[in-house]
Specification:
- Chain B: One of its GO terms (cellular component) is plasma membrane.
- Chain B: It is found in: Cell membrane.
- Chain B: InterPro entries: ABC_transp_permease.
- Chain B: Keywords: Cell membrane, Membrane, Transmembrane, Transmembrane helix.
- The complex is a heterodimer of chains A (about 325) and B (about 350).
- In chain A, about 70% of the residues lie in helices and about 0% in strands.
- Chain A is an all-alpha fold and about 325 residues long.
- In chain A, helix 2 packs antiparallel against helix 10, helix 4 packs antiparallel against helix 5 and helix 7 packs antiparallel against helix 12.
- Chain A has one domain.
- By secondary structure, chain B is an all-alpha fold.
- Chain B has a domain of about 220 residues.
- Helices cover about 70% and strands about 5% of the residues of chain B.
- Chain B has a two-stranded antiparallel sheet.
- The model of chain B has no long low-confidence stretch (mean pLDDT about 95).
- The chains are: A mainly alpha (about 325), B mainly alpha (about 350).
- At the A-B interface, helix 5, helix 11 and helix 13 of A face helix 7, helix 12 and helix 14 of B.
């Protein structure tokens, strides 16, 4: 018991939790934006992959790290636009379109990577983001090492929590986004375009998702691997429900998830000889299912989610 | 302005033509990535066609590849009919394969006439059970089945890895994480000498016809379709919606489980953790291309299998990455989704003048 407490009280543990949480923060923020506007975006898993590949490749071709981040976001926005066109003006099944975008973005990323690098035995590496050291602040006890061992993308993710919360709750645009996912005809009555609002939000949300992928190849690792996203996108969809579509709760949910994951990794080093490693690897997925099940009964889905809107049709 | 006007009657030619056109468009669009890779486009298509249909061997490969796709396609089609979004075909396939191996590698010794049905039933049962959990979570607790089935895919594959590195590891496997080989008596017979096509294909075709009859001619099948059309109306009409979801979940999972059985007991003869290159997910594309029709699934599976087998062969010949096949499959899903618009709606270009006249 005291061992467990000891783990939980180290700064390194929380540093790891925040690191694991970072791509999920991006992903959940992106997913909740789309869903707040009434569009489920199951393209997320593929958009993660596309962001990871495009960002990495841009850096590898010499675009610089922030150039890579920009390219990743643009790639995410492009696939988001595909999903937005299919689901908003065309009103096609959001489930099927999302799966389609995931398959499309994933296969296009893999094809591009394989075509650019036909036969490499080990994936080429880039100079990834390094932890930032902020004078004085980094020297704070506990908080310093936990927070300031992070790379710039983690800070970007935390900044986006604030930005998304501010936009959603403190600006007319945010009000419109929330309304268009709950009651699109009210938006129409205001003289605003449901189509443009939904499409814009889906594109922006998808760009955020892609940054989650970019974190994987540009911060967590320094190379692109096939299958590296490994269900993180789907985990984000579950966490979005858990976070009841709120940016603040999204941060807490992602951090809790990161803490659980960091904890089981440490537990694995303690008891790994008795329990097969796969049991630990299953934990994130089982945890996400549990998170979904716990809140499912009282989940307050945006009321117009999954429902296409056609002008003049009631 | 573009206006969608719903069609009152949709001709069956249009219903069949749309997905065929979508598949052809997706296939044509493949020329872009082929050209981008700097390969000769026409030659690539020719090599793909030859790889899929060019010889008895090629055709046998195509049929062998289509077999699991028919089964996972049926699994997706039947579930989607009830709007139960089972995206867990991949996991259910592995559950079926695991059960087939558990029964068929020596736990029971019996003559083929007894052992093969046992292996098949065990796989179907395991697949069905795999889908029972998310279905119950949906109907009892309201947990979205899309997310739970997707996440369970990862859990099942890890469970398979665990079994293959642990209790089910082949002691004679030179340390590789693979199961013991299936007993000869448990293997589905080959259909052609020295070819890989096996009687799992017959099983898949029988299931396609059976699911077709089930949906069209039985009360339970009618209830599945009714729930898919409108769950609220179905409930008011006295259809047991919960029970229908459970039934369709079990059936869908069982069909995906059979795909696992067919791969292990028909093709590979033992289980590894890379048994399926995403047959579960590709099954969704197959089902959509088929317009969720069980008989259409057979043709859609043949088309998709042709893409995969053809692309593999083309890739070996001129070095275009065989991820091209996945790209074509993904594109055809998007194309068929869009093609649905042309089936359901008459698409009119409305000029401002005409609009004024309308008003």
């Amino acid at each position: 018991m005291s061992d467990i407490l000891e783990i939980l009280l180290t700064a390194n543990f929380w540093a790891a939790a925040l690191r694991i949480a970072t791509p999920l923060i991006f992903g959940v923020l992106g997913a909740l934006l789309c869903e707040r506007a009434g569009v489920l975006n199951l393209g997320i898993e593929g958009i993660f992959t596309a962001g990871a590949m495009a960002g990495w490749m841009a850096v590898w071709l010499g675009a610089g790290l922030w150039g890579g981040v920009l390219v990743a976001a643009l790639a995410g926005a492009a696939f988001g636009l595909v999903h937005a066109i299919l689901t908003v003006p065309l009103g096609l099944s959001q489930h099927v379109s999302g799966i389609g975008v995931t398959l499309f973005a994933t296969s296009l990323s893999y094809y591009t990577y394989r075509t650019a690098l036909p036969d490499v035995s080990s994936p080429p590496r880039i100079e990834a983001f390094q932890p930032v050291d902020i004078p004085y602040l980094s020297d704070l006890p506990f908080l310093g090492p936990a927070l300031f061992q992070q790379t710039p993308l983690t800070f970007l993710a935390l900044a986006f929590v604030v930005v998304v919360a501010f936009v959603l709750y403190r600006t007319p645009l945010g009000l419109a986004i929330r309304a268009v996912g709950d009651n699109p005809s009210a938006i129409e009555a205001q003289g605003l375009s449901v189509t443009l609002l939904r499409m814009g939000t889906v594109v922006a949300g998808s760009a955020l998702m892609a940054l989650g992928g970019a974190f994987l190849t540009m911060s967590a690792f320094d190379a692109f691997f096939f299958g590296m996203v490994n269900g993180r996108g789907w985990i984000c969809i579950a966490l979005t429900v858990f976070a009841s579509w709120r940016p603040g709760k999204a941060l807490i949910g992602a951090l809790l998830f990161g803490a659980f994951d960091a904890f089981q990794v440490r537990l694995q080093t303690e008891v790994g000889s008795v329990i097969p490693g796969q049991v630990f690897l299953m934990m994130p997925y089982l945890l996400s299912i549990a998170a979904l099940v716990v809140v499912a009964r009282k989940a307050d889905y945006p009321r117009a989610m999954l429902k296409p809107y056609f002008r003049g049709q009631r | 302005m573009i206006r969608f006007e719903p069609r009152e009657n949709v001709s069956s030619a249009r219903r069949v033509g749309a997905p065929v056109a979508a598949a052809l468009v997706a296939l044509l669009l493949a020329s872009l990535p082929i050209a981008a890779a700097g390969a000769p486009v026409l030659e690539a298509y020719l090599l793909m066609a030859r790889g899929a249909f060019g010889s008895v061997f090629a055709f046998s490969e195509l049929l062998a590849r289509a077999t699991p796709l028919i089964l996972t396609g049926l699994a997706a089609a039947v579930a989607f009919r009830a709007r139960l979004w089972n995206i867990g075909g991949e996991g259910q396939l592995y559950a079926g394969a695991l059960a087939a191996v558990a029964v068929g590698t020596g736990a029971i010794s019996a003559p083929p006439a007894l052992l093969i049905p046992l292996v098949v039933l065990a796989g179907a049962f395991a697949g069905g059970m795999m889908m029972l959990l998310p279905t119950l979570l949906k109907v009892r607790l309201g947990a979205d089945e899309v997310v739970t089935t997707l996440l369970l895919n990862f859990v099942v594959i890890l469970a398979v890895q665990m079994m293959l590195e642990g209790p089910m590891k082949d002691p004679m496997g030179m340390g590789w994480p693979q199961s013991e080989p299936m007993l000869d008596e448990a293997m589905l017979p080959k259909l052609l000498e020295r070819m890989r096509v096996h009687s799992g294909l017959i099983l898949a075709l029988v299931m396609a016809v059976a699911v077709h009859v089930f949906l069209k001619r039985t009360v339970w099948g009618f209830e599945i379709r009714a729930v898919g059309e409108n769950p609220e109306a179905a409930r008011h009409a006295g259809i047991p919606v919960t029970a229908t979801f459970v039934r369709v979940g079990l059936l869908s999972g069982a069909l995906a489980g059979l795909a696992g059985v067919s791969e292990v007991a028909g093709l590979k003869g033992y289980l590894t953790a890379d048994l399926s290159p995403g047959f579960g997910y590709t099954g969704i594309v197959v089902a959509m291309l088929a317009g969720l029709s069980p008989l259409g699934v057979v043709f859609a599976a043949l088309f998709i299998a042709g893409i995969f087998v053809g692309a593999d062969s083309m890739s070996r010949a001129i070095g275009v990455s065989n991820y091209l096949a996945d790209l074509v499959v993904a594109t055809s899903l998007i194309c068929v989704l869009v093609s649905g618009l042309f089936v359901r709606f008459r698409i009119r270009l409305v000029t401002p003048k005409a609009r004024k006249a309308d008003a």
